Hints:
It is globular, with a radius of gyration of 16 Å.
Amino acid sequence: xxxxxxxxxxxxxxxxxxxxxxxxxxxxxxxxxxxxxxxxxxxxxxxxxxxxxxxxxxxxxxxxxxxxxxxxxxxxxxxxxxxxxxxxxxxxxxxxxxxxxxxxxxxxxxxxxxxxxxxxxxxxxxxxxxxxxxxxxxxxxxxxxxxxxxxxxxxxxxxxxxxxxxxxxxxxxxxxxxxxxx
Length: 182
C-alpha cells in the first residue's frame, strides 16, 4: 500500500511539472507504424511473437516463448526519430498482462548494447507502470553490463518490448499507451 501511495504521488508530481510525448497511443493512431519483430529465431530458437490492434484500440504483443534450441526471447521494436527523447526522465506504460515480467528496451545509434528495465504485469488487470530512466541497465545478448556508459537520451533510436528470462509458454501483453515524460 505504501508503494502504491508513493507511485501515485510520483505520477501526480510528474504530471504537474512535466510534459509528455505519446510514443504509442493506438486510439489516436500514434506509434502503430515502424514496429518490427525480433525473436530468438535469429539465433536458432523457435519463439514466436505477433503485434496486432484490438477492437478496443490497444496494441497486443503476444506469442509463445520457447527455450528450444537455446532460445528464450521474443521482442518487438518501434523505430524512433533521433532526438525525440532528449531529456526524457521516465516512461509511463498502461498495460494489461498475463502475470509475466517484461522488459522495456531502448537502443541508441552508437551502441551495441541496449538498455533494459523490467516491469511486471498483473494477470488480466490494467495497471500503469512508471519506469524512471535511471532504471535502465545496459544489456547485450542476455548479459548485464554495470560498467557500460550511461544512456544518452538524445541518441535513442528505438523502443522495444521483450519477454525473456525463461518464462516459457504463451504470453500476452495489451498496451493502452506508452508515454515519455520529459
